[in-house]
Amino acid sequence: MRILLVASAYNSMTQRVHAELADQGLEVSVELALGDEVVREAVRRWDPDLVIAPMLTTAVPEDIWSVRPCFIVHPGPRGDRGPSSLDWAIMGGAERWGVTVLQANAEMDAGDIWASAEFTMPRCAKSSVYRTEVADAGAQAVLLAVARFASGRYRPEPLDYSRPDVWGQCRRPCRQADRRIDWQDEPTDSVLAKLRAADSSPGVLDTIGGAEYYLAGGHEDDRLRGAPGTIVARRGGAICRATTDGAVWIPQLRRRPEPGGPKTFKLPATLALGGSLADVPHVPAPLVPPPGRRTYQQIRYREADSVGYLEFCFPGGAMSTSQCRRLLAAYRYAQRRPVKVIVLGGPRDMFANGIHLNTIQGADDPAEESWRNINAMNDLVEAILTTDQLTIAALAGNAAAGGLMLALAADQVWCRAGAVLNPHYRLMGLYGSEYWTYTLPRRVGAQEAARLTSACLPVSPASALRSGLVDQVIAGDPAGFRAQVAALAEQLAASPGYAARLAAKARRLAADGRKRPLAAYRAAELAIMSRNFAGPGEPYPELRRAFVYKEKPLRTPPHLARHRAHPLPSYVLAR
Question: Could you tell me the pLDDT band of residue 49, with boundaries at 50, 70 and 90?
């Protein structure tokens, strides 16, 4: 079967659907919805049996959906309609939610239903729900809808609000007026719901120090207090603002652009506010928090049964210079503890995406900050590669570029079945470092390493397991993944073969070092990266800027648009 994916962005959902369908052996091409005529030409060239829109903010042209089946993936349960589905669900405290695959017609989100899947709504930010529960349910529903379509026997269900399983509703767009926070009146729960529903886009428009900012992200603090609306603390780039009955941490801000002025981009909140926070106390969080403590903590550590769990979660998966250095210090702490196994990874969602392009773009000298950032990443990777304990990288969610190469430094890589992996740098104009020229080929072989880094396509966990990119794939939701990782790590620490594994690791590292020292890999990678960062004519600065400012691409990247290799047929849309 030939499928065309039409999407407003090649985001996490589009990548997940792309990878899942490719794993089914289907012919898949992608076209970004950059205009109706662009989509029409893609349909003419690819002549798909089915068009699927994993994430679309515009309508499919009538002359496409009226002549061939087009499936829309909507992030809401049966009957839910409107562009702000998840926003309203989070602000309304929904306990259950879902994803529906429906057929495009003349009325937005009202077509016949091909499949749906439901899930329990977690209490976390919209971006995390979207990349995790929504992506899981979306992939499940898409695969079911495609199987039903391929059978030729299934008849989709018309939208019928009289049915008991159709419990969604048509909702209006969520505007900034709906998101506005009244700091003098609203309790913490209400403030958190609005912040989480707007993360990471569009943010909550608010005023700080007489200037307007979009607030991104929200985390409760159960101890800090102050006059409602005031900034009472700062930590790890985040600011803490008091509410009427508590306080919330806000990790990122984006300055509202002036009319006709330059565009702006998200930054860690303390960087966005600059020197205005001189009188705000820095309140560090202990690496090992007391039981039950509720606060914002990017890095935390705990132990159980000879296993140390070093959990980290950075907004969007990006790792700045300071974040890398703090994580390295935490890893050094774990190394000194009486544990046999160290587990690296967050409790859910994103693992890591590599260097922090936004803080780099915001630096006085982006090339110099790029250099500091990549060296801080390399220091962390080197520590993981050379530790005397066994290290497990536990990928509860997506990983890409240097973030994935960070995981490959571990002795074992365990991946949740719902993750999406992107083992490449080239789309950002970078060669890459993090010792990938050592760790990736030793896992998958030189030929497969070259293919993965040049193809620039998302890799499913199942495909990664087949190639050796990961060692184990664990099914289930984030809580189930976390529990299974703990059980397996504790078994490893207690296994009779632990000492033999550790000895084998030391022998291999020594043997590899005799062939070529680790320092040689790093030096060779950084020599190329240095040119990428500051060399004349290098694409990285402009690609970084386009990424940070979220500039709309001019065309679909050729490696996604397989249909571009197909000549236009003589006929048009109708067969």
Answer: very high
